[in-house]
Amino acid sequence: MNKILSQEEIEALLSNVSESQDVDIDEEIEKEESKALQFYDFKHPDRISKDQIRSLRTLHENFSRLLATYLSTVLRVMVDVNLLSIDQVTYSEYTMSLSTPSSIYVLSSENLDGKLIIELCPALLLYMVDRLLGGTGDSTTESREITVIEQNVVRNIINNLIKIFNEVWSQAVDLDCKYSSFETDPQFVQIARSSDIIAVIFVEVQIKGQSYQMNICIPYYMLEPILPKLSSQAVIGLTKKSSESDSIMLNVNLSATQLPVVVQLAKARITIKDLLSFRRNDVIRLETRTDDELPVFIKDRAKYKGLPGRKGRHRAVQISNIIEPLDQIYHQ
After folding, report:
1. Quick one: pLDDT band at residue 24, thresholds 50, 70, 90?
2. Which domain holds residue 128?
3. Together in a domain, 245 and 313
4. C-alpha 79: how far from chain center
5. For range 34-53, the mean pLDDT
């Protein structure tokens, strides 16, 4: 039979229901508050994932190493190139951050149908010009606009820089970038719309305690078709290939290294007394005969034996033998 509840029992049931609901609501609020908040910038959306950023970092770390080796060889001074950061900003913010005058090299890529920028500090180009023309590079000149003659002086270095950039990127995708134009005013360079997102790779070049800035600007519309190739698997492949490319570049730079070559025509031993008594037309008797082989020194080390002669209007020596390691001690 049905039991009729008293007023006290009804109030007890209602109080229990309200308490359970309050507890559930409090627990839900605590759970929501415990979740970590993530901020999203609608003005600067991250179009490139962290995994793809790591791949870009690996690519340009290899580029920095190869560029440092090349500049050290060409400028004949120790050069250190370091990758600082990779940021995503709008193109208008990037152009506003550049100083005037700048040294902006615009590159065109036929494979990706677009253009990118390599911006160098004008002081770095002036240092290169000074070194290539025989200067010490120690003179400090104020940053100024690069003249057409100075552009032509460093053109070979820029072409090789672009070549290294293409070789590094070819491990992931073939960019095939080529020199398009040179500008000194950022306002005259328009490779993307003002609101377009671009990836900016900041690089630091250190020479004799001086720091020079260089950056690479790649629009997102160029990266979008190749972003699927910039994955974690690509990073592993790039790491393996980087050692091979470093070895090839090292062999090329070593092959182009110049060493002094000295041929010792003759030698003699005299006393201090004879040296002090020398007069004009005195004759020194040498220990070498006219038909003897002469030692050929490579950087103060006797490496070969040769016969003296002439080639055209120039004096020359013909390598006739290789000096063995034990014989080098005799010629030191």
Report:
1. low
2. 50-255
3. no
4. 10
5. 65
Task: Report the DSSP beta bridge partners of residue 205.
Answer: 81, 212
Structure tokens that stand for 63 in this block = 């580029």
Mean of pLDDT over the chain: 80
Domains: count for the chain: 2
Distance CA 65, CA 327 (A): 39
86: which 2 tokens?
């990779």
Q: Is the same domain home to 118 and 132?
A: yes
* Average confidence (pLDDT) over 80-101: 91
In a domain, 327, yes or no: yes
Domain boundary among 226, 255, 284: 255
